[in-house]
Amino acid sequence: MAAAFWAMGLSLLLQGGLCSVGQTHLGCMNLTRTGSGFCCNGCHPGYRLFKVCGPLPEELCTPCEPGTFSGNPKSNRCARCTQCVGAQVYVQACTATTDTKCGCKEKLTCGDSQCSYCVDKCDKGHEPTNERSCRPCKNGTFNDQVHKKCKPWRTKCPNPDEHIVAQGNALTDTRCAVTLGSNRPDPTEEAWPFVLSVVISVVLTSFVIMMLIIIISSRSRMMAKKRKEEEVVEKEKTIPGTLIIDSPTDDPRTLIAIECSFHEAEQEQGSSSESLASDDSSGRLIG
Description:
The chain is an alpha+beta fold and 287 residues long. Among the domains are: 21-80, Ribbon (Tumor Necrosis Factor Receptor, subunit A, domain 2), CATH 2.10.50; 122-178, Tumor Necrosis Factor Receptor, subunit A, domain 2, CATH 2.10.50. Helices cover 37% and strands 18% of the residues. The protein has 3 helices and 17 strands. It has helices at residues 2-21, 187-237, 252-286; strands at 31-33, 38-40, 47-49, 53-54, 61-63, 68-69, 79-80, 88-92, 101-104, 108-110, 118-120, 126-128, 134-136, 141-142, 151-152, 162-166, 175-178. The strands form 8 sheets. The chain has a 3-stranded antiparallel β-sheet with strand order 1-2-4, with no helix packed on it. The longest helix is centred in the last third of the chain and has 51 residues, at 187-237. The radius of gyration is 68 Å and the shape is elongated. The termini are far apart. The model is unreliable at 1-25, 241-246 and 271-287 (pLDDT under 50).
Protein backbone atom coordinates (compact mmCIF):
# COMPACT_ATOMS: atom_id res chain seq x y z
CA MET A 1 0.00 0.00 0.00
CA ALA A 2 2.83 2.42 0.84
CA ALA A 3 4.46 1.64 -2.49
CA ALA A 4 1.24 2.53 -4.27
CA PHE A 5 1.02 5.90 -2.54
CA TRP A 6 4.67 6.60 -3.35
CA ALA A 7 4.13 5.78 -7.02
CA MET A 8 1.04 8.02 -7.12
CA GLY A 9 2.91 10.89 -5.54
CA LEU A 10 5.77 10.55 -8.04
CA SER A 11 3.29 10.54 -10.90
CA LEU A 12 1.66 13.74 -9.67
CA LEU A 13 5.09 15.35 -9.30
CA LEU A 14 6.01 14.46 -12.87
CA GLN A 15 2.71 15.77 -14.21
CA GLY A 16 3.21 19.01 -12.31
CA GLY A 17 6.68 19.31 -13.76
CA LEU A 18 5.43 18.65 -17.27
CA CYS A 19 2.71 21.24 -16.88
CA SER A 20 5.24 23.77 -15.65
CA VAL A 21 7.28 23.21 -18.81
CA GLY A 22 4.59 24.94 -20.81
CA GLN A 23 4.59 27.97 -18.50
CA THR A 24 6.48 31.12 -19.47
CA HIS A 25 9.63 32.56 -17.89
CA LEU A 26 11.08 29.12 -17.15
CA GLY A 27 14.24 30.23 -18.94
CA CYS A 28 15.19 26.91 -20.52
CA MET A 29 14.57 26.71 -24.22
CA ASN A 30 15.75 23.11 -24.74
CA LEU A 31 14.45 20.97 -21.88
CA THR A 32 14.74 17.17 -21.77
CA ARG A 33 13.40 14.70 -19.23
CA THR A 34 15.64 12.17 -17.51
CA GLY A 35 15.01 9.37 -15.04
CA SER A 36 15.71 11.56 -12.04
CA GLY A 37 14.28 14.88 -13.32
CA PHE A 38 15.08 17.34 -16.16
CA CYS A 39 18.11 18.66 -18.02
CA CYS A 40 18.51 21.99 -19.88
CA ASN A 41 20.76 22.35 -22.92
CA GLY A 42 20.39 26.12 -23.27
CA CYS A 43 18.65 29.14 -21.73
CA HIS A 44 16.67 31.93 -23.36
CA PRO A 45 18.31 35.36 -23.75
CA GLY A 46 18.14 37.19 -20.46
CA TYR A 47 18.75 34.03 -18.44
CA ARG A 48 21.86 32.27 -17.27
CA LEU A 49 22.34 28.49 -16.87
CA PHE A 50 22.20 27.83 -13.10
CA LYS A 51 22.18 24.01 -13.21
CA VAL A 52 22.31 21.64 -16.15
CA CYS A 53 20.03 19.03 -14.57
CA GLY A 54 17.69 18.97 -11.62
CA PRO A 55 14.31 17.80 -10.37
CA LEU A 56 12.57 21.11 -11.17
CA PRO A 57 12.81 22.80 -14.61
CA GLU A 58 12.40 26.34 -13.22
CA GLU A 59 15.56 25.91 -11.17
CA LEU A 60 17.80 25.21 -14.18
CA CYS A 61 17.85 28.78 -15.62
CA THR A 62 17.65 32.00 -13.62
CA PRO A 63 17.01 35.55 -14.96
CA CYS A 64 19.83 38.09 -15.16
CA GLU A 65 19.99 40.69 -12.40
CA PRO A 66 19.47 44.41 -13.16
CA GLY A 67 22.53 45.97 -14.79
CA THR A 68 23.48 42.67 -16.44
CA PHE A 69 22.50 40.88 -19.63
CA SER A 70 22.98 37.55 -21.37
CA GLY A 71 22.68 36.45 -24.95
CA ASN A 72 24.63 33.19 -24.71
CA PRO A 73 22.32 30.17 -24.22
CA LYS A 74 24.94 28.13 -22.32
CA SER A 75 26.57 30.90 -20.31
CA ASN A 76 26.42 30.34 -16.53
CA ARG A 77 26.61 34.04 -15.71
CA CYS A 78 25.25 37.34 -17.02
CA ALA A 79 27.60 40.05 -18.33
CA ARG A 80 27.65 43.50 -16.82
CA CYS A 81 26.18 46.29 -18.98
CA THR A 82 28.65 48.65 -20.66
CA GLN A 83 28.82 52.20 -19.35
CA CYS A 84 29.17 55.07 -21.86
CA VAL A 85 31.88 57.39 -20.54
CA GLY A 86 33.96 60.34 -21.71
CA ALA A 87 33.14 61.40 -25.28
CA GLN A 88 30.59 58.59 -25.55
CA VAL A 89 26.84 59.14 -25.45
CA TYR A 90 24.04 56.64 -24.84
CA VAL A 91 22.28 55.50 -28.00
CA GLN A 92 20.33 52.58 -26.51
CA ALA A 93 20.00 51.54 -22.84
CA CYS A 94 21.03 48.11 -21.63
CA THR A 95 18.38 45.37 -21.31
CA ALA A 96 18.44 41.80 -19.96
CA THR A 97 19.04 40.52 -23.49
CA THR A 98 21.24 43.23 -25.11
CA ASP A 99 24.14 45.36 -24.00
CA THR A 100 24.22 49.15 -23.98
CA LYS A 101 24.77 50.87 -27.33
CA CYS A 102 27.08 53.87 -27.16
CA GLY A 103 27.79 56.58 -29.71
CA CYS A 104 30.08 59.57 -29.89
CA LYS A 105 29.61 63.30 -29.58
CA GLU A 106 29.42 65.68 -32.53
CA LYS A 107 32.52 65.80 -34.79
CA LEU A 108 33.64 62.45 -33.31
CA THR A 109 33.05 58.89 -34.47
CA CYS A 110 33.45 55.36 -33.11
CA GLY A 111 36.96 53.96 -33.22
CA ASP A 112 35.86 50.31 -33.64
CA SER A 113 32.80 48.23 -34.45
CA GLN A 114 31.75 48.03 -30.76
CA CYS A 115 32.24 51.80 -30.37
CA SER A 116 34.38 51.19 -27.31
CA TYR A 117 36.13 54.53 -27.84
CA CYS A 118 35.76 57.71 -29.91
CA VAL A 119 38.12 59.39 -32.35
CA ASP A 120 38.09 62.57 -34.44
CA LYS A 121 35.79 62.32 -37.46
CA CYS A 122 37.89 62.83 -40.59
CA ASP A 123 36.34 64.94 -43.36
CA LYS A 124 36.63 64.32 -47.07
CA GLY A 125 40.18 64.65 -48.32
CA HIS A 126 41.54 63.23 -45.03
CA GLU A 127 41.94 59.80 -43.48
CA PRO A 128 42.13 58.44 -39.90
CA THR A 129 45.44 57.37 -38.39
CA ASN A 130 46.41 54.76 -35.83
CA GLU A 131 46.91 57.57 -33.35
CA ARG A 132 43.15 58.31 -33.50
CA SER A 133 43.68 61.55 -35.43
CA CYS A 134 43.25 62.67 -39.05
CA ARG A 135 45.72 63.50 -41.78
CA PRO A 136 45.34 64.83 -45.37
CA CYS A 137 45.45 62.40 -48.25
CA LYS A 138 48.92 62.02 -49.75
CA ASN A 139 49.66 63.10 -53.30
CA GLY A 140 48.26 60.53 -55.69
CA THR A 141 45.42 59.54 -53.34
CA PHE A 142 41.94 60.91 -52.63
CA ASN A 143 38.98 60.40 -50.31
CA ASP A 144 35.43 61.49 -51.24
CA GLN A 145 33.76 60.06 -48.10
CA VAL A 146 33.70 60.96 -44.43
CA HIS A 147 36.15 59.10 -42.17
CA LYS A 148 37.42 56.67 -44.77
CA LYS A 149 40.87 55.64 -45.93
CA CYS A 150 42.38 57.49 -48.89
CA LYS A 151 42.42 55.60 -52.19
CA PRO A 152 44.99 55.89 -55.01
CA TRP A 153 44.12 57.74 -58.21
CA ARG A 154 43.22 55.54 -61.12
CA THR A 155 45.82 55.36 -63.86
CA LYS A 156 43.54 53.88 -66.53
CA CYS A 157 40.08 54.86 -67.69
CA PRO A 158 37.32 52.25 -67.48
CA ASN A 159 36.18 52.66 -71.10
CA PRO A 160 38.55 52.03 -74.04
CA ASP A 161 37.52 55.21 -75.90
CA GLU A 162 38.21 57.44 -72.86
CA HIS A 163 41.44 59.07 -71.79
CA ILE A 164 42.57 60.89 -68.67
CA VAL A 165 41.92 64.59 -69.18
CA ALA A 166 42.57 65.87 -65.63
CA GLN A 167 44.57 64.70 -62.64
CA GLY A 168 42.85 64.08 -59.34
CA ASN A 169 43.21 65.86 -56.04
CA ALA A 170 42.62 65.05 -52.38
CA LEU A 171 38.84 65.05 -52.93
CA THR A 172 38.37 63.59 -56.42
CA ASP A 173 39.81 60.89 -58.60
CA THR A 174 41.38 61.45 -62.02
CA ARG A 175 38.80 62.53 -64.61
CA CYS A 176 38.27 60.62 -67.85
CA ALA A 177 36.51 61.79 -71.01
CA VAL A 178 36.06 60.76 -74.63
CA THR A 179 38.63 62.37 -76.93
CA LEU A 180 39.04 62.48 -80.71
CA GLY A 181 39.83 59.06 -82.02
CA SER A 182 39.10 56.46 -84.64
CA ASN A 183 35.73 55.67 -83.13
CA ARG A 184 34.55 59.26 -83.22
CA PRO A 185 33.61 61.03 -86.51
CA ASP A 186 35.63 64.00 -87.70
CA PRO A 187 34.08 67.30 -86.57
CA THR A 188 34.50 68.70 -90.11
CA GLU A 189 32.39 65.84 -91.44
CA GLU A 190 29.74 66.56 -88.86
CA ALA A 191 29.76 70.27 -89.82
CA TRP A 192 29.28 69.72 -93.57
CA PRO A 193 25.49 69.09 -93.41
CA PHE A 194 25.02 72.25 -91.40
CA VAL A 195 27.15 74.35 -93.77
CA LEU A 196 25.34 72.93 -96.81
CA SER A 197 21.93 73.71 -95.33
CA VAL A 198 23.04 77.29 -94.59
CA VAL A 199 24.31 77.79 -98.17
CA ILE A 200 21.08 76.42 -99.66
CA SER A 201 19.01 78.66 -97.43
CA VAL A 202 21.02 81.74 -98.46
CA VAL A 203 20.71 80.91 -102.19
CA LEU A 204 16.96 80.33 -101.97
CA THR A 205 16.45 83.53 -100.02
CA SER A 206 18.49 85.54 -102.55
CA PHE A 207 16.50 84.03 -105.45
CA VAL A 208 13.19 84.92 -103.84
CA ILE A 209 14.36 88.49 -103.18
CA MET A 210 15.50 88.92 -106.81
CA MET A 211 12.19 87.60 -108.13
CA LEU A 212 10.30 90.05 -105.92
CA ILE A 213 12.46 92.94 -107.15
CA ILE A 214 11.87 91.98 -110.81
CA ILE A 215 8.10 91.67 -110.33
CA ILE A 216 7.87 95.00 -108.52
CA SER A 217 9.98 96.74 -111.19
CA SER A 218 7.83 95.32 -114.02
CA ARG A 219 4.63 96.43 -112.35
CA SER A 220 6.11 99.89 -111.76
CA ARG A 221 7.06 100.28 -115.46
CA MET A 222 3.63 99.09 -116.60
CA MET A 223 1.86 101.52 -114.31
CA ALA A 224 4.11 104.42 -115.46
CA LYS A 225 3.41 103.59 -119.13
CA LYS A 226 -0.30 103.45 -118.46
CA ARG A 227 -0.26 106.82 -116.70
CA LYS A 228 1.67 108.35 -119.64
CA GLU A 229 -0.88 107.07 -122.15
CA GLU A 230 -3.70 108.49 -120.07
CA GLU A 231 -1.98 111.89 -119.96
CA VAL A 232 -1.62 111.91 -123.80
CA VAL A 233 -5.32 111.16 -124.21
CA GLU A 234 -6.28 113.95 -121.85
CA LYS A 235 -4.10 116.44 -123.77
CA GLU A 236 -5.70 115.48 -127.07
CA LYS A 237 -9.16 116.08 -125.63
CA THR A 238 -8.27 119.63 -124.54
CA ILE A 239 -6.86 120.91 -127.99
CA PRO A 240 -8.98 124.11 -129.08
CA GLY A 241 -10.69 124.63 -132.54
CA THR A 242 -11.23 121.03 -133.24
CA LEU A 243 -14.04 120.58 -135.75
CA ILE A 244 -16.56 118.07 -134.73
CA ILE A 245 -18.85 116.83 -137.51
CA ASP A 246 -21.85 115.03 -136.37
CA SER A 247 -23.17 112.21 -138.40
CA PRO A 248 -26.26 112.92 -140.59
CA THR A 249 -29.56 112.54 -139.00
CA ASP A 250 -32.80 111.20 -140.26
CA ASP A 251 -34.84 113.92 -138.58
CA PRO A 252 -37.08 115.57 -141.37
CA ARG A 253 -36.83 119.00 -139.80
CA THR A 254 -33.12 118.87 -139.95
CA LEU A 255 -33.17 117.83 -143.61
CA ILE A 256 -35.51 120.72 -144.49
CA ALA A 257 -33.26 123.20 -142.75
CA ILE A 258 -30.27 121.93 -144.64
CA GLU A 259 -32.14 122.14 -148.00
CA CYS A 260 -33.33 125.69 -147.35
CA SER A 261 -29.86 126.77 -146.55
CA PHE A 262 -28.63 125.25 -149.75
CA HIS A 263 -31.21 127.11 -151.86
CA GLU A 264 -30.48 130.38 -150.21
CA ALA A 265 -26.86 129.93 -151.02
CA GLU A 266 -27.64 129.27 -154.67
CA GLN A 267 -29.82 132.34 -154.88
CA GLU A 268 -27.17 134.52 -153.43
CA GLN A 269 -24.73 133.12 -155.91
CA GLY A 270 -27.17 133.77 -158.76
CA SER A 271 -27.79 137.36 -157.81
CA SER A 272 -24.12 137.92 -157.60
CA SER A 273 -23.66 136.54 -161.07
CA GLU A 274 -26.37 138.78 -162.43
CA SER A 275 -24.78 141.83 -160.87
CA LEU A 276 -21.52 140.99 -162.47
CA ALA A 277 -23.20 140.52 -165.85
CA SER A 278 -24.98 143.82 -165.71
CA ASP A 279 -21.87 145.60 -164.78
CA ASP A 280 -20.10 143.96 -167.62
CA SER A 281 -22.73 144.95 -170.13
CA SER A 282 -22.84 148.50 -168.98
CA GLY A 283 -19.20 148.78 -169.30
CA ARG A 284 -19.17 147.51 -172.76
CA LEU A 285 -21.76 150.01 -173.72
CA ILE A 286 -19.89 152.89 -172.26
CA GLY A 287 -16.77 151.91 -173.99
